[in-house]
Design goal:
The chain folds into two domains: about 70 residues, no CATH class; about 40 residues, no CATH class. The protein is about 65% helix and about 0% strand. It is built from four helices and no strands.
Length: about 120
């Protein structure tokens, strides 16, 4: 069963723009602190630290897997052509018992997902 996972990571330029915006906000904040520090005693000004983000190894693996999946075609055209030819030649056989078992298994998996 395939699961479509989409992560909203943005483009490189969007990420860079966000970083630049954060950096400029930090610079503006630092400048405001300097102005305030000049007019108030140093002991009353707490040092502000910037926000940071750490991506776990598991998140990096998920992003790598998403990139690989995005580069794969959605349909295996070679397999489709082989099945079409087998159907046209009368060689493609369907096992009804196996098909029924697969459908039942798929429905059970869907019910398990609904419980989560």
């Amino acid at each position: 069963m395939a699961i479509d996972i989409k992560l909203n990571t943005g483009t490189t330029s969007q990420l860079r723009a966000g970083i630049a915006k954060t950096n400029s906000e930090q610079i503006n904040s630092a400048q405001a602190e300097q102005v305030t520090a000049k007019s108030t005693p140093a002991q009353s000004m707490p040092v502000q630290k910037g926000d940071s983000v750490v991506i776990t190894a598991q998140a990096q693996q998920l992003q790598g897997a998403q990139a690989k999946m995005a580069s794969l075609p959605e349909v295996d055209l070679k397999k489709v052509a082989e099945i079409k030819q087998a159907i046209a030649e009368g060689r493609y056989k369907i096992d009804p018992e196996k098909l029924a078992a697969n459908i039942a298994s798929f429905e059970a998996q869907l019910q398990d997902l609904d419980k989560e």
